[in-house]
Design goal:
Blueprint (H helix, E strand, L loop, with lengths): L1 H18 L3 E5 L4 H13 L4 E5 L6 H14 L2 E4 L3 H17 L8 H24 L1 E3 L5 H6 L20 H11 L3 H5 L12 H5 L3 H8 L6 H13 L1 H5 L11
Parallel strand pairs: 1-2, 1-4, 2-3
Helix pairs in contact: 1-2, 2-3, 2-7
Bound molecules: nicotinic acid adenine dinucleotide, adenosine-5'-triphosphate and magnesium ion.
The site of magnesium ion has 6 residues, from loops.
């Protein structure tokens, strides 16, 4: 584990140098993925690493966990509460959709949730610009493979150090780094609505996804779910679609 951590820390240092920036910033949710990234960026750039708590109608317990993470990593941190901003922006958008008789309320929960993730992204980039930092993402291998992230939200980052680690490997790294036990043991959640858990929403478990990614045999139903999630999310991993230049047709 020491070698794996050293590898990621030196990769982060290399990226900072190549980009000619001063440091790194990450959003701290109180979940395990951002906790691991918090520890990695602190090791990579001890004097120029920053964690940002971005509550948006979030559970207060998650904020307490985020504070525990920050303390465990001895990371510089700040809080920007996005609740009012989200209420104003989502309220304005839906008001106009109502007036135009275009409002599809069936999609409200997802649209509301993805706006939270994109407000976090915008906030992190505003802070990154202020500090001349890069924005570090927290997607692990399971989330990346299934597309379980908001495009240009939590997926809108400069660096993604955990993208080759299964959720199990993230857990092992978290233990090694000294992430608080309650954070390691809590159910993964995007925290985008009351009672949301990743596993309920995805329709399979991280254990199944990890086993699938390691090439192990898993039940047909879980395999089909994972393959469907993967097929539906190519556009998130492939980047922006461009036409061929007219001259090259
Ligand atoms: N084929 C295609 N080619 C190009 N673009 C395509 C496309 N199909 C959809 N799109 C675009 O992509 C959009 C859909 O993607 P997106 O906006 O990401 O939205 P979507 O994938 O529908 O939702 C995001 C999912 O990620 C979960 N999430 C989000 C944030 C954090 C976490 C977490 O674990 O913490 C989890 C969230 O709970 C939800 O299940 C469409 O609105 C459309 O604009
Ligand atoms: N309240 C929040 N404050 C700051 N950043 C947040 C917040 N909620 C989500 N994020 C950012 O979005 C990322 C994606 O969330 P995700 O839930 O996948 O990761 P996590 O909370 O760190 O771990 P877990 O998947 O175990 O819940 C977080 O790692 C974090 O960087
Ligand atoms: Mg979470």
């Amino acid at each position: 584990m020491e070698k794996k951590v050293e590898y990621l820390v030196s990769w982060l240092q290399k990226k900072v140098k190549e980009a000619n920036v001063k440091g790194l910033v990450v959003g701290i949710s109180g979940g395990i993925d951002s906790a691991v990234v918090a520890h990695l960026i602190k090791r990579a750039v001890p004097e120029n690493s920053l964690g940002v708590m971005l509550p948006c109608k979030s559970h207060p317990g998650d904020f307490d966990d985020a504070m525990r993470v920050v303390e465990s990593a001895d990371l510089k941190a700040m809080t920007v509460d996005l609740t009012d901003t989200h209420n104003t922006l989502f309220g304005t958008i839906t008001h106009v959709l109502d007036e135009e008789k275009m409002h599809n309320k069936a999609n409200d929960q997802l649209a509301d949730a993805n706006l939270r993730a994109r407000l976090r992204m915008s906030t992190l980039y505003t802070i990154a610009t202020n500090h001349q930092y890069l924005v570090v993402g927290t997607d692990n291998k399971a989330e990346w493979h299934t597309g379980y992230f908001t495009k240009y939200g939590d997926g809108g980052v400069d660096l993604a150090p955990l993208v080759h680690l299964t959720k199990g490997e993230v857990r092992e790294m978290a233990k090694y780094l000294g992430v608080p036990k309650e954070v390691i043991e809590k159910k993964p959640s995007a925290g985008l609505w009351e009672g949301q858990t990743d596993e309920n929403e995805m329709g399979t478990t991280y254990d199944m996804i990890d086993r699938y990614l390691k090439g192990e045999t898993i039940p047909e139903k879980d395999k089909a779910t994972i393959e469907q999630l993967h097929a539906r999310s190519h556009h998130k991993r492939d980047g922006i679609a461009f036409p061929k230049a007219y001259e090259d047709m």
